[in-house]
Amino acid sequence: MSASNVAGSKWAAGQIPSQAGRTALITGANSGIGYRAALELARHGAHVLLGCRNYEKGQAALDRLLRETPGASAELVELDMASLASIRGFAAAFAARGIALDLLINNAGVMALPKRELTADGFERQFGTNHLGHFALTGLLMPQLLAAPAPRVVTVASLAHRNGKIDFNNLQSERSYKPWDAYGESKLANILFANELNRLAVAAHSKLLSMPVHPGVSVTNIIANGPGSNGPKAMVLKLLAPVIMQPDAAGALPTLYAATSPEARGGEYIGPDGFMEMKGSPVVVKPKPHALDQAVGQRLWTVSEELTGVMYPPLS
Ligand SMILES: NC(=O)c1ccc[n+]([C@@H]2O[C@H](COP(=O)([O-])OP(=O)(O)OC[C@H]3O[C@@H](n4cnc5c(N)ncnc54)[C@H](OP(=O)(O)O)[C@@H]3O)[C@@H](O)[C@H]2O)c1
Fold first, then answer.
1. Strand partners of residue 4
2. Whose CA, among 212, 215, 291, 314, lies 20 to 30 Å from 269?
3. pLDDT of 253 strictly over 50
4. Distance 222 CA to ligand 1 centre (A)
5. Alpha carbons 79 and 86: distance in angstroms, whole number
6. Roughly what angle, to the nearest 10 degrees, separates helices 253-260 and 32-43?
C-alpha cells in the first residue's frame, strides 16, 4: 500500500480528515516534528494537548500555534518524559477530567547525548525518555484511549533503529556508553514497543491501532540539543543538509498520516518515500528485520513493565 490518494498524488497534510471532536496528546510538542504535528491536528479541528517539559517553551509554542491557527483548540500540559512522577501526575490529572483520548503521539526525544545522563528515576536518559517514558505514559493512559471510538497510538522512531541493538545485558548502557548506540537502541525499542502494542491489541480484538513512524532526516532542534551542532556527525549532516534533509513540517507527515488517515493500518511502519527514506511523502516502509523480532519485543515489554512499574490493563 502506498499513501497516495485516489488520483495517485502524494499524501499531504491537506488530506487530513476533519479531527473535530477528537482529543490528541503530543509529547515534545514545543518544537520540531511534535510542534508541526500539533499544529496540523489543531488546524483540522482536534483539541490538542501540547505535552512539554519546559513551561516557558511550551507556552511560547502554544502562543505560536494560536497565532498560526486562530480559533484553534489547544492547551499546554506539563509533562516530563524523563520523570515517572511527572508522567503519573499527568495521567492521573487527565483521567480525572473524565474525557477520552483519541490520539496519543509518542514523539518527545533526545538524541546521542555526549555523556551518559540519567533521568529522575535513574534510567539512561535516551532509553528512559524515548522508550520507557512513552511505555509508561501509554499504559497509564490506556483506559482513556480505550474510551475513544477509534483510538490510535503513534510512536516516532528513526532510521537510527537500523544500527540499534537491544542488549539486555547493557540495556541502559551501564557497562559502556556510546551516544549513538544508546540512541539507536531507544529508537529500535520504539518500533518493538509499537509493534508489540499492536500485536496485543489485535489479539484482544481491540479497536486500538498502534503504529511506529519515522520522519526521515528533518531540520529540528534535535542535533543542537544532543550531539551539538559542531560534532563530526552534525558537521556531515550540515554539509549534506540541502540534499538529504527536509523541513520539520515534512518530517511530521508520517506521524500525521498514521494518526489520521482512514487507510492507515495498525502495525504499519510509515516513513518518507524518497532516496533511502531520508525525505519525501509518507508511505508504508519496512523496518530492519530485527525490529520485527517478536521474542525481543515481548521480552522488552516485560522488562519495561518491571522498570516502570506500569502494567497494562486488558486492551479490549
Ligand atoms: N529530526 C530528525 O531528523 C529525526 C529523525 C528521526 C527521528 N526523529 C525523532 O523525532 C522526534 C522529535 O524530534 P525532533 O527532531 O522534532 O527534535 P526536537 O525539535 O529537538 O524536538 C524534540 C522534542 O522533545 C522534547 N523533549 C525532550 N526530552 C523531553 C522530556 N524529558 N520530556 C518532554 N519532552 C521532551 C523537546 O523538548 P525541549 O525543547 O524542552 O528539549 C522537544 O519538544 C524524536 O523522537 C526523534 O528521535 C527525528
1. 10
2. 314
3. yes
4. 6
5. 6
6. 40
Total count of domains within the chain: 1
Task: Please state, in angstroms and rounded to a whole number, the distance separating the CA atoms of residues 305 and 302.
Answer: 5
Give per-residue pLDDT as tens, 214-237: 999 998 999 888 888 777 777 787
Q: Give the structural domain span for 162.
A: 19-216+253-270+284-308
Average pLDDT over the chain, rounded to an integer:
95
- Nearest CA to 161 among 282, 293, 33, 280? 293
Determine the average pLDDT of the residues in 43-55. 98
CATH number of the domain that 84 lies in?
3.40.50.720
Residue whose CA is at the smallest distance from ligand 1 atom 27: 109
CB-based burial label for 9 (10 Å; 0-12, 13-18, 19+): exposed
Does 247 fall in a domain? no
The answer to the question of residue 243 being in a domain is: no
Question: One of 177, 183, 257, 269 is an active-site residue; which one?
Answer: 177
